[in-house]
Amino acid sequence: MSGNTCILIGAGLDCGKRRRGCSMGPEAYRVAGLAATLAELGWRVEDRGDVPGPKAPPPSPDGQVHASAETAEWTRLLADAARAAMPDGFPIFMGGDHALSLGTVAGLADHAAARRRPLFVLWLDAHPDIHSPDTTASGNLHGTPIGYVTGQPGFDGFPAMTHPVPPKNICFIGLRSVDAPERAAIQSAGMRAIDMRQIDERGIAAPLAEFIEQVRAANGMLHLSLDVDFLDPAIAPAVGTTVPGGTTFREAHLAMEMLHDSKLVTSLDLVELNPFLDERGRTASLMVDLTASLFGRRVFDRPTRSFS
């Protein structure tokens, strides 16, 4: 892990899709005790508040693509926030929908390039989010971050991706909703993609360990982007893109524990939490618990929580 200071940055971006509610995510993480949990683990915590979104986002002229101009402005703002935070500690971007990663990863890639180190991205998600505005069928830009950060064309009006992330530096884990163009793009680019069948057959530890060794061998900086729908909706209902058959409680915690042990993770996105869809805060609390495992909470230190 990087440094001893966690920097919390709220990103109430809610324009990457049409279903509202993710704008409430940053406050839900605060209410669920993210800062106190990290402090209990010995980390200094600095909450920089929420990134102010576009004050008067211009209307998108492109019709099918939802809120393109607003998302482009969020991308600029979050890239700036990421570049500013990285020299000071370990930033945690509290979303907000997954379109926030267009900006966070862009800023992190600039930071890594300035330090002459490669950036790697671990995408824990049911979806690969590899479309562009030209290829998306839904028009929802939360399905495009990987397309943007790898330098795909079609992002007119967005900040230039000055340091694209090489596709071989990206690993998807937890995939279970991939359309045919996405599958073809992943295979042609040589990205590492671990779907739920592979997890069923091999477990989560073996493929994750292989990726960790790839990052270590390259002296890379590792960004973790954790989508609520990585988890099975039975344990994490507060997401608008539920896909059955996600990772279990123990699989998810094992992944976080392995990433902590690797000491390679340098930044984190927590995305797609929609508190409007939650059940008495259980998803927000689970995401905080997973973050705690990433930051060093051991199995026998985990508190018992009652939802009764």
Description:
This protein has a single domain, classed as Ureohydrolase domain (Arginase, Chain A, 3-Layer(aba) Sandwich). The chain is 35% helix and 16% strand. It has helices at 25-31, 34-40, 68-85, 100-114, 145-149, 180-189, 196-202, 205-217, 249-262, 282-294; strands at residues 5-11, 44-50, 90-95, 119-124, 170-175, 192-195, 221-227, 265-271. The chain has an 8-stranded parallel beta sheet, with helices on both faces. Strand 4 (119-124), helix 5 and strand 5 (170-175) form a beta-alpha-beta unit. The model has no long low-confidence stretch (mean pLDDT 92).
Determine the fraction of residues in helical runs and give it as a percent range. 25-40%
Q: Based on the structure given, which CATH architecture is correct?
A: 3-Layer(aba) Sandwich
Counting helices, strands and paired strands, the structural category is alpha/beta
The number of strands is 8
Distance between the termini: 35 Å
Indicate how many domains the architecture comprises. 1
How do the strands of the widest beta sheet line up side by side? 2-1-3-8-7-4-5-6
CATH superfamily, please? Ureohydrolase domain
Helix segment tally: 10
Could you say what the CATH topology is called? Answer: Arginase, Chain A
CATH class: Alpha Beta
Rg is 18 Å
Low-confidence sequence ranges: none
Tell me the series of helices and strands, N- to C-terminal: EHHEHEHEHEHEHHEHEH
